[in-house]
Design brief:
The protein is an alpha/beta fold. It contains 14 helices and eleven strands. It folds into two domains: about 200 residues, Aldolase class I (TIM Barrel, Alpha-Beta Barrel), CATH 3.20.20.70; about 70 residues, no CATH class. Helix 5 links the parallel strand 4 and strand 5. It is globular and about 50 Å long.
């Protein structure tokens, strides 16, 4: 397939693996890249020198393009950006912050820049900042999310109407059928998170992967909207947050409850009750752990099957 996304990134399929904290190390990114998608190293859970190590290992494991995701609200952003440039990474996804601050710096270095947004206001702003593409992330997505709670099916056509640059749909996409729907709504490609979080190469703790596979409808909830909205699997920690929010807890109180390294505790170290377990609604559809290449091939295969099924319909 050749379209705006495959040409922009130099990949075979318009499928991007999300840069998920504690899941997206060099093994997952290189596996997706080798399978023909765009793999992403998630810098949000890495100290700068750890990121450098992952970039170097990824370059040794694949000759195909890969990217780094940088949440702009995290500390050490300048050092992270310098490492990305020094190590010759060609594609950067920025998120959770103002794209105006870093887009010019990266573009001046010759990098391709993509920014993650969750509403039309920031889609327009990101395009004005000069990014090459945007990820439009709907309410279904795991991890950090938009306060507006706009679903992917509503968000994609609205964003498509207000920007001219390529749009990558994210949120609730874990199958070829969902990919076809996203492209029908105006997206040029898709970003897949949760389905790759349970890949064999994901650095998520085995207990977290198992918990994802055991989840059902309604087992995730968007929480902490007064702080930074995040979709979580329900557990003891999520219950404490929900109870605090029901009593009107402000941002300072939520910060106190959250503490430090809560996501690492759950997603990387395997504490399934006191850890923060970030995952999307599509987790209820995931049933087994597979290699990343197999996940990508299955998405592409079912995309083509659904495309043919629709084309064969008589109207």
């Amino acid at each position: 397939m050749v379209n705006k996304i495959t040409e922009l990134f130099g990949v075979r399929y318009p499928v991007v693996q999300a840069g998920m904290v504690w899941c997206s190390g060099w093994r997952l990114a290189s596996a997706v890249a080798n399978a023909g998608g765009l793999g992403i190293i998630g810098a949000g859970s890495m100290y700068p020198e750890i990121l450098r190590e992952h970039i170097r290992k990824c370059k040794m494991a694949t000759s195909n393009p890969f990217a780094v995701n940088v949440p702009l609200l995290y500390p050490n952003v300048q050092e992270v950006m310098d490492i990305i440039v020094e190590e010759g990474v060609r594609i950067v996804f920025t998120s959770a912050g103002n794209p105006a601050i870093w887009t010019g710096f990266l573009k001046d270095k010759g990098l391709t820049v993509v920014h993650v947004i969750a509403n039309t206001k920031f889609a327009i702003k990101a395009e004005a900042c000069g990014v090459d593409a945007i990820v439009a992330e709907g309410f279904e997505a795991g991890g950090h999310n938009g306060r507006e709670e706009t679903t992917t099916m509503c968000l994609i056509p609205m964003v498509r109407d207000v920007v001219k640059i390529p749009v990558i749909a994210a949120g609730g996409i874990g199958s070829g059928a969902a990919m076809l729907a996203a492209l029908a709504l105006g997206a040029d490609g898709v970003q897949v998170g949760s389905a790759f979080a349970v890949a064999e190469e994901s650095s998520a703790h085995p207990k977290f992967k198992d918990r994802i596979l055991q989840s059902a409808e309604g087992d995730t909830k968007l929480s902490m909207k007064k702080l930074v909205p995040v979709r979580l699997l329900k557990n003891e920690f999520a219950d404490v947050i929900a109870q605090a929010e029901s009593k009107g807890a402000d941002a300072d109180e939520l910060v106190r409850i959250l503490g430090r390294a809560r996501a690492k505790l759950g997603m990387f170290e395997g504490d399934m009750e006191q850890g923060e377990l970030e995952i999307g609604q599509v987790s209820a559809m995931l049933k087994e752990i597979k290699p990343a290449a197999e996940i990508l091939k299955e998405i592409w295969r079912t995309f083509l099957e659904e495309k043919e099924r629709i084309a064969a319909m008589r109207f």
